[in-house]
Design goal:
Its EC number is 2.3.2.13. With 689 residues, the chain is α+β, with helices and mostly antiparallel strands. The protein is built from 13 helices and 38 strands.
């Protein structure tokens, strides 16, 4: 082999052209279907005798499109790889290299072979990384709007929506796809998948296809099956790991996975899986965003119906595999569906949360969002599951454990899939995308699509498992009821509710009401009982009555989960009438923390930040920890311990930032103590040069 030539990869210029300036390494990162320049010396041969070799993966070959050899041509090829001479000097050559729009993405080795002399020789020029290119119209991930490319590929900050449909809240997340060695970690995630382990050559040859890459990564972000990145835990106890609510960004999770020798990071819940998948896909160049679906159905048995069971006391029973989550977070990625046709291109649903197996492993998608909206549930991949998440009908049952008898209390077809939300492009606001998933709830079009989906799933035969039998047919209730919130919903304050009951009949009714309140996870899984009570009331004809309910802070605070959610239920036993179920899921807000940047934030200059928290309760809070991160504002995650705070005491904590890049940046703050876990906020910091 010849002496190693020295190679100039023109890192700054190429990165500027390829929208890869934010990567921090010293390896060239470029996007496919677009030319980049490289200069090298040490070849004494005429340029026309140079042959370039670009190869990727363990066994490069032309057949699998993981090996390309190409000489110098006068113009760039639109088909394969090509090289065009830029300039030459006595001892160096500048070449513009172009890759095809559908090239395999990943790390390439580039070498040059000289064929002119008696002894042909090959010299290695080095390695570069090739990514998807949403700025290029020939690419499967092409996104015509520049502002959307900026948000869904280049933006490192996101807002994830949570809470419940009556009370939507959002928290910041640092995707951090350009920080440190995240790109390397993303490439190693692909090399650790089951697909790669079973057949590395075929796996690498499929990496030109965003459908394939998205599906493989939806499996790898969860730990099930393949020792993937994040281990899920929905138990309510998180010993031996970090509570899912405590993370503020993906960087720490991906770094921990690598540092531990690729052992799954403990623990995640849906938004963690979705946020990590966003980081990995944005890093590789596939436009991606997080989506929150409120009142999200987990339809385990595929009948487009979810069942919830309650006992006579009003306790929510864990029966059956179906559930309705207060919210669920998944991803949408943007690419064409050559396999389905143009009308199914655009946003595709991917979900890395391990809920149900698909093809024998925990992966989900890509499901075309247009296919979901039109009820085309027979199209690849996993459309029936996603369709159910936003459309399933809800059946509420009374279950008697002594006799095993279940009685239908009510069914709702408009409950599931509410306020589907994502962050706005270029702004820190919520955008509602429910209409992109389904037609107006309750409209005939929406019901027609539901029937079409059921038919395609073979649920329309005469033994329809979802059609109620004689004893299941809903009878008309004599009374109606609802819980109203009176006052604020904040951890540290008493919870004040009103149970409102209305007699719908023109004669008096006696009602026995059994009420319970349970702390739950955001999946509505009941964890601990907080309170129960019962009342007996007589309602005169058409009368409305209100019953105040107070659950004191000191009654609920020890039972509360870190999800800060409570389900309040009343089962009303009406004399000579059917039972009526009244329920409400309550998401409590945390007390506020205040973040101030003291002075102007300038590149490479120190600036002070102050975080203020006032203890709102009349007992001391302990184990106070402040966790801070933000891409381009500080490296990694800063953790500060804070002394205990007495009742009503105010704490002020200061720390320094040294911003590394100009522009609007986001600082994420997470304050935790024994009484108030994971109070989150974020602050936009405008950094100037």
């Amino acid at each position: 082999a010849a002496t190693q030539p020295s190679t100039d990869w023109h890192l700054k210029e190429n990165a500027r052209e390829h929208h890869t300036s934010k990567f921090s390494g010293d390896e060239l990162v470029v996007r496919r279907g677009q030319a980049f320049t490289v200069t090298f010396n040490g070849t004494e041969q005429p340029e026309q005798s140079l042959i370039f070799i670009a190869e990727t993966g363990p066994k490069p070959s032309k057949a699998t499109k993981t090996l390309a050899t190409f000489g110098i041509s006068s113009t760039a090829s639109t088909e394969g790889w090509s090289a065009v001479l830029q300039s030459t000097s006595s001892n160096s050559v500048s070449i513009s290299i172009s890759s095809p729009h559908n090239a395999v993405i990943g790390r390439y080795r580039l070498s040059v072979r000289t064929t002119a002399s008696d002894s042909p020789s090959t010299a290695r020029l080095g390695t570069f990384v090739l990514l998807f290119n949403p700025w290029s119209s020939g690419d499967d991930v092409f996104m015509p709007s520049k502002a959307e490319c900026e948000e869904y590929v280049l933006e490192e900050f996101g807002i994830i929506f949570a809470g419940n449909k009556n009370h939507i809240s959002g928290f910041g997340w640092n995707f951090g796809q350009f920080q440190g060695d995240i790109l390397d970690i993303c490439l190693s995630i692909m090399d650790r998948s089951l697909y790669y382990r079973q057949d590395p050559v075929t796996d690498v040859s499929h990496r030109h296809d965003p459908k394939y890459v998205g599906r493989v990564l939806s499996a790898m972000v969860n730990a099930n099956d393949d020792q993937g990145v994040v281990l899920g835990n929905w138990s309510g106890t998180y010993e031996g790991g970090k509570n899912p609510t405590s993370w503020t960004g993906s960087g720490e999770i991906l770094q921990n996975w690598k540092k531990s020798g690729f052992k799954p990071v403990r623990y995640g819940q849906c938004w963690v899986f979705a946020a990590v998948l966003t980081t990995v896909l944005r890093c590789l160049g596939i436009p991606t965003r997080t989506i929150t679906n409120f009142s999200s159905a987990h339809d385990a048995d595929g009948n487009l119906r979810v069942d919830e069971f309650y006992d006579a006391e009003g306790n929510h029973l864990e029966r059956g595999a179906d559930s309705i989550w207060n919210f669920h977070v998944w991803n949408e990625s943007w690419f064409t569906r050559n396999d389905l046709g143009p009308s199914y291109s655009g946003w595709q649903v991917l979900d890395a949360t391990p809920q149900e197996e698909s093809g024998g492993i925990y992966q989900c998608g890509p499901a075309s969002r247009n296919a979901i909206k039109e009820g085309e549930v027979d199209l690849e991949y996993d459309c029936p599951f996603v369709f159910a998440e936003v459309n399933a009908d809800c059946m509420y049952w009374n279950y008697d454990s002594a006799t095993g008898k279940k009685t239908l209390i009510l069914s709702k077809s408009t409950e599931i899939g509410a306020s589907i939300s994502t962050k706005a492009v270029g702004r820190d606001d919520r955008v509602d995308v429910t209409r992109d998933y389904k037609y107006e709830e309750g409209s005939t079009k929406e019901r027609d699509i539901f029937k079409k989906a059921r038919k395609k799933l073979g649920l329309e035969d005469k033994f329809d498992p979802t059609a109620p039998t004689q004893e299941e047919i809903e009878q008309k209730p004599d009374i109606s009821g609802k819980f109203k919130v009176a006052g604020s919903l904040e951890v540290g304050k008493d919870l004040n509710l009103l149970l409102v009951l209305v007699n719908l009949q023109s004669h008096a009714k006696t009602v026995d009401v059994k009420m319970t309140a349970w702390s739950t996870l955001y999946t509505r899984r009941p964890v601990r009982e907080i309170w129960k009570d019962s009342i007996s009331v007589t309602l005169s004809p058409k009368e409305e009555k209100q019953f105040p309910i107070k659950i004191k802070y000191n009654e609920y605070h020890q039972q509360l989960t870190t999800d800060k959610t409570i389900q309040v239920t009343a089962i009303c036993h009406v004399e000579d009438g059917v039972q009526v179920l009244v329920q409400r899921n309550i998401a409590l807000d945390s007390p506020a923390i205040d973040v101030q940047v003291l002075g102007e934030a300038k590149v490479n200059k120190e600036v002070d930040v102050e975080v203020v928290f006032t203890n709102p309760i009349d007992t001391e809070v302990m184990d106070c920890v402040l966790q801070v991160e933000g891409s381009d504002l500080l490296p990694g995650v800063l953790e500060l311990r804070i002394p205990p705070l007495k009742a009503s005491e105010k704490s002020s904590t200061k720390f320094k930032l040294v911003p590394s890049e100009a522009g609007p940046k986001h600082l994420l703050v997470n304050f935790s103590c024994d009484k108030f876990p994971d109070i989150k906020t974020f602050k936009m910091v405008n950094v100037t040069n």
